[in-house]
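Run folding on both entries below.
>entry_1
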Amino acid sequence: MKKILFLTFIMISLNLFAGYKDIPVTRDLDLNAEYDTYQDWLEDHPQQQTHSSEVNRMLSNQRDEGFLIIVNDDLYENIESSIQTYQEDLANEGFDSFVLEFDGTSHFDLKVQIIVYNQTENVTNVVLIGDLPVPWFELFEDFNNNGIQDDDEAWVEFPCDLYYTDIDGSWEDNDNNGIYDYHEGDKHPEIGIGRIVANNMNMLSETESELITNYFQKNHLYRTGIITSHETSLAYIDDDWSYWGSEYQQAMQLAYPSVELVNDDEETIASDYRDNRLIADYEFIQVHVHSGPNAHYFYYNDGNNYELVNNYEIEGINPTAHFYNLFCCSNSRYTTVNNMGGMYLYGSDHGLATIGSTKTGSMLGFSDFYQPFSEDLTIGESLRLWWEANVDTGPDWRW
């Protein structure tokens, strides 16, 4: 059984080797799409002074690594029993865990806590639960690597949790607008990180605390073997990446010997994905498709048309997979209301973890992720090792 670090909406980086330069970038095909911004986030989160305190620790003394669980202060009381069960599950797997209540809007202060626990308690995994501070980054997407912002290369700003994982790199905001624009020094991540954030999933009828409680219940049942695990996975590769389908399948086979590859251009369509694939018995789905935060855009008719799978369809489908690698532009932009990454988790009785990007682009170099995942490492640690291997490539590709 694969172990899981709650890897919900992580802004992931993108590995680009020389041979990948011709691979199309996954994009939002809605040219009129408007994304939430840093200013939007500020308006919803007026500045608040930081208050934090450790409320529980559970030591197993079996591993030289631990989990820091940081919970929004207003949320903690409503999910305390779920957090305790999670700690017990971690202890049964040999992990120490520390629970920290956090109130405030400063991502800098939150990172200080991560650094302190890393240095004093050897915490190597962090789980952020609830509405917690979001670091933002901005850049222009220099996909042709010419150092010039061309007409088709947008200036973008996006949530960037790499900030929390890299505890000794240099992060700067050169234009003093509150958004980082410079990341240098030792850029390699020391921390595996994930978010469980459901305060903006208002398409679902449950409250934030109910969604998170349900999520932890699923997680507990999976960890204790009560939920059946299917040792099969799906590589569902839409038109623009179908040529590389076998390569992606081979990478996934490092962790799952049985990987079904679907990469025929006229077969990878919205109705097939919606009606046949999401309800099939796969444990892990890796889907490559142009997307936005709230939808997938599947091509058909030789790429001349596309059809959507929308966020509002997910709950009714109730997908059966536990894990998703979303090669889908902005699908895991967790600051966006009812984002697809969140719907796969909270709109399903089975979803446990998604990996995805908060901006254009997504993961490549998949073997750097699936190899450690095959060695029974957590998803969070597997992703950290993938980042470690690929973070030195350009930020427009890796983020």
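>entry_2
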Amino acid sequence: MKRKVIQLAGKTSVVSLPHSWVKRFNIKKGDELDIEELGNNIMVKPVKNGSEVRTINIDIDGFNERTLRYAASALHKLGYDEITLVYSKPKLNDVVQDLIKNLLLGFIVIEQTSKKTVLKNIANEVESEFNNTLRRAFLVTNSLASSSLDMISSTQFSSLKSLINLEMSNNQLTSFCLRLINKGFYKEPDKQLFITTIIWNLEKIADEYKSICNNLSMNNYEISKDILDLYKEVNSFFNDYYELMYKFSIEKVNSLVDRKEELFNKLNNINTRNKFELQLLNSLSTIVSKTSDLSSSIFALHHLEI
């Protein structure tokens, strides 16, 4: 959509607003609009209405549990504020309650009948929440990494599943970050792709630590010191990427690139036939790979600082 600029009194430049947008937000003469410069772009928002309330109805009769989880997660991330699940017979209510508790941050059930369940967002979503939420997602993942190593080192394998709550917290926080992006609360559009990639990889890294906890919770075999030492190095590798995210330097990038190759060499040269150690080594390799995948996106966020 293009608009011509109108010049008033020689100094004031004016453009008309799209009629459909004016009607949608009920903009009247004299109303204030919030105008913000975003690089080469300008964002115009109605002050009195805040952000638009987005609603959607979805028929879940053909959904199984996993499909419902995928759908609810996607709609939450897309920024919908009210989600109505329609069905011919009540089902998957336990799944809905679990989603409210463990994934859909800010949502509650406001209506439930024999034909539908309505989920509504009650969180006060503001721009300032984004950076804090993303940092918390990093810190929760760091905690999952260090706590899992501590338990494995002390052979507390049966306690590992207690750490799954940290992975669930990571899911909540990363999903909420993506939701804030899709609702326009991330104010650097030229960097949106890169920050989204970081969030996506961060969620996958936590998933891999969760896999370690699930796999080793059934183990009674003491993990070798060499592998535990590598576990510690991998955790340190992830933590250094977290620090790079918030205090960037080329020297750190160079060092991390070298350490990636060193870690892969060490992981590939460990000899073991124990299935739990093999699973652990595979997960640690995946964590190194996913962590290293943060490099390009972190560089893009900080390229003007070089």
